[in-house]
Amino acid sequence: xxxxxxxxxxxxxxxxxxxxxxxxxxxxxxxxxxxxxxxxxxxxxxxxxxxxxxxxxxxxxxxxxxxxxxxxxxxxxxxxxxxxxxxxxxxxxxxxxxxxxxxxxxxxxxxxxxxxxxxxxxxxxxxxxxxxxxxxxxxxxxxxxxxxxxxxxxxxxxxxxxxxx
Length: 165
Fold this sequence. Notes:
Layout: H1 2-19, H2 24-28, E1 38-41, E2 44-47, H3 62-81, H4 97-117, H5 120-124, E3 126-129, E4 132-136, H6 137-163
């Protein structure tokens, strides 16, 4: 549990540092033609997503990646530790950099709080999730940690590319 909490905090702190100064123009910057992003639809803001994306997998904007990290946190946590009622369309898609960062931070709070108090038995406890068979709490946290590290690194790279465009 201590290792997962340490990794979680380090990856969140790294992403937090890389988000400093993020403005809306950079948030929405398409790094390649056809990049997936968040967009305003007939029923409000949404984001492009397919479980089996077309090849080659689309490049995504910082807006898309930051929403994706937070959405995964909210939904996995909802199913593993909550009422299992929320679905992705129920989540608010924040369309400003500031609001998306606030949402991402909020989405990490329950995870950190749980990890701070988790025992080995709690980490090994089987939990439901929205994509299939039950997993251990450790596996669920590891999935979320992997997403945060993976997409956080991509956000960092996109920020570097944006600064040198």
